[in-house]
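User: My instructor asked us to take a sequence, write out its structure as tokens, and then describe one feature of it. I'm not sure where to start. Here is the sequence I was given:
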Amino acid sequence: MLAIMRPLILSAMAAAGNVLPADTQISPVTEPPKTPDGLAPCVSPMVPGAPWSPRRGEKLTYSAELFGISLGRLEVETVAGGSAGHTARLEYRASADASALVRTLFGLEFTISAWRPSTGAAPVSTQLHYRYLFRHADERNEFSADARQVISWRESEDKGNSLERGFASPVHDLLSSLFFLRSLEPGTSGCTILYGNQCAYTVWIEPETIDSEETIWGKRAVERLSIRYGSDAFDFTRKASITITVGAERIPLRGEIENSVHPVVELVAFEPGS
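Assistant: Let's start with the prediction itself. The structure tokens for your sequence are:
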């Protein structure tokens, strides 16, 4: 019964736009999350000059690959997210539009949503759902107003788990971290902390080059970013790279992770919204 009811409860909370109760008591934390050997802790996370606020209706569509095989499309869009009290919210939503072959062979499903104030960088709540072969997960995270406290609920296969975490500095969720990245000025280097999958990811970003590259709009100036990251749940570090435009929109064009399945996403369409 828990396995049936929990996703329904999480969906209802998302619709209600819940936020972490003000009287929630989580033990204060003074140290950054632990990291795998060779990856420095993030003691002083980056703070963007101004939070990125994309237009409602903005949609980025990416092709997605694993093992060099097309999975279909990944869509990331910004929609109106309602309000809580007098605070307007935005919802960021990403979902996989898997090819017919992938759906048939692997039963792949993936959606993730994140809510935050329409002005401000701190997340309010997130919701994740994925299914792959015989594995699935539904996760809901609620953040405090300063994004230093999180309560998380997760249903995976036949077990459920709730978790409370405190952090020494504000954290970002996995999805709206994309918009945090877009708020950084070209040439910015440093670290940040992301929370998702009931663990904390320490992410280090280092700019490599600014060059001119062919894009869906023709030649554009782009910046290549080198990324190293790891979580406090595992003892290994991953490498990734992101290519992002240099102009005011700062649109991520391509991302890939160096691991055994080598996921790659590449922008194929962009709708600016209004």
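For the description part of your assignment, you could build on this observation: Helices lie at 2-16, 100-106, 177-182. Try explaining in your own words what that tells you about the chain.
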